[in-house]
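Incident review: delayed structure delivery

Summary: a single-chain prediction request sat in the queue longer than the usual turnaround. Root cause was a stuck worker, restarted by the on-call engineer. No data loss occurred. The affected request and its eventual output are reproduced below so the record is complete for anyone auditing the incident later.

Affected input:
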Amino acid sequence: MSSFAEAPAGDAAKGAKIFKTKCAQCHVAEKGGGHKQGPNLGGLFGRLSGTTAGFSFSKANIDAKVTWDETTLYDYLLNPKKYMPGTKMVFAGLKKPQERADLIAYMKEATA
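Output delivered after worker restart:
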C-alpha cells in the first residue's frame, strides 16, 4: 500500500480509537478547540501546512506548503519526520495502511 488510492477503506470508529491513543495527547480535532503541544486540527482538510492561527510551527512545516488532504495525510502519517524533515512533530508514524486509513476517515469527520 504505497498510496492513499491503494489504501483499504477507512473505519472512522476505529480511527477515533487511534486518535484517542496516539494523537489526542498533542492535538484537538474539533474546530474551536485550543492548541496543545501540536496545533488544533479543526478545518485541517484543504488547509495549507503551517497556517493555523495562534500556533508556532516549525520553519519546515511552514516552508513545506503542503495542502492537507487524504493523500498528503496518508503519506505524512507513515513517517512525519521523513515526509517533512525538520518538523517539530515527535510522532514516529503509523506503519499499517489500515490504521492510517482509519485515522483519516475519523479525522475527515472530526475536523470538519
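Verification: The two ends are 26 Å apart (CA to CA).
Action items: add queue-age alerting; document worker restart procedure.
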